[in-house]
Prior knowledge:
Elements: E1 5-13, H1 19-29, E2 33-45, E3 48-54, H2 57-68, E4 73-78, H3 84-95, E5 102-104, H4 119-125, E6 131-132, H5 136-143, H6 150-161, E7 167-170, E8 180-187, E9 190-197, H7 207-220, H8 225-243
Parallel strand pairs: 1-2, 1-4, 4-5, 5-6, 6-7
Antiparallel strand pairs: 2-3, 7-8, 8-9
Amino acid sequence: MTPRTVLTIAGSDSGAGAGIQADLKVFAALGAYGTSVITAVTAQNTRGVNAVLPLPPQTVRDQLDSVLGDFAVRAVKTGMLATPAVADAVAEAAQAGQLPRLVVDPVLVATSGHRLGVVEAVERLLPYAEVATPNCAEAGVLTGRPVTTVVEMVAAAEAIAAGGPAHVVVTGGDLDADGESVDVLVGGGTTTLLRAPRVTTRHSHGTGCSFSAAIAVRLASGDPVPVAVAAAKEYVTRALTGARHWELGAGRGPLDHFGWSC
């Protein structure tokens, strides 16, 4: 059987824990054929980001044309967009209906604190998103107010959804809600809290990328958004659990995308 094709539009992570590399690992782990459009090249590892080189918007357009002109892409996710000009190139394709079942992961700041994107770039894509997946920090930047509790996560998800996305998931992995990891899903007139046991680990680099990539795979399979989001949360929880005792790198390491340690 021919595998379904999923596209990631994001930055390259030389440490391979996040970005394009993480997305392609998730696609493969979940049985999809991954294609990619690189928006920027970063020099980074588990300890931080040392350099970022955004690619020219035309180079992004050329990659999009090559992939979309040859593959039957079933779902798309975006990550680091780097600049508003790059986001414009991606938004043009979305506006033309070329980016089906679009998942927007609004990558703004790396775990190390290095700024990887700008709000204006993310806002270009939000009106075309079937799902947007900001974490609490990103939701705070997008709404202009702090997001530090579950109640504030709900309010932020509702505010972001008002800007265009059909569904918004504010992920709460950085908040400790009584030993749980709580995500808030808003869309279709409903609000859902997704709960999972909190995994204690320093290996969480690329969690957001992996979560949004897993959603895209499930959407490509035809799952409705709530089912796709719940399945993606289960996948990331397993991946975090599998890597919790790894010794890859001296900083915040990658996830166990393939279940090697589970």
